[in-house]
Design goal:
- This is Lipoprotein.
- Keywords: Signal.
- It contains four helices and no strands.
- It has one domain.
- It is 83% helix and 0% strand.
Length: 127
């Protein structure tokens, strides 16, 4: 009878040990799931920011390309391009594109034909 009594006395202890070890596993799994979820949120936010930045660059290029489509630059076209220059620099538009926009923007009354052509070519390849 004593062995049976000893087994009954130890049963709650074994249950407690199993419960505690099970809680540790549940805690680890929950922690891993929370970390995975946080990483997924960070990845999504990073991708969204990247998409927004790219959309901004694309819009700046579209606006800078519109005035040179016909191969001529009017004073108002030049003013528009000048206004886009700072935004393009801040948005991280490629430096060679910035240089072309800057050349057109700062040309004064006579925009060099090769500057217009270079910007047209850049605009065509950006599409």
């Amino acid at each position: 009878m004593r062995p049976r009594l000893a087994a009954l006395a130890l049963a709650p202890l074994f249950s407690a040990v199993l419960f505690v070890s099970g809680c540790g596993q549940v805690e680890q799994t929950a922690s891993e799931a929370a970390n995975d979820l946080a990483q997924a949120g960070q990845d999504a936010a990073s991708q969204a920011a990247s998409d927004i930045a790219q959309a901004g660059k694309d819009e700046l290029m579209r606006q800078a390309c519109r005035p040179v489509q016909d191969g001529t630059i009017s004073a108002s076209d030049q003013e528009l391009i000048s206004g886009l220059l700072a935004g393009a620099e801040a948005a991280g538009v490629r430096s060679e594109v910035i240089a072309q926009v800057e050349q057109v923007a700062q040309a004064g009354g006579q925009v060099p034909a090769n500057g217009v052509k270079a910007l047209q070519d850049t605009c065509s390849s950006a599409k």
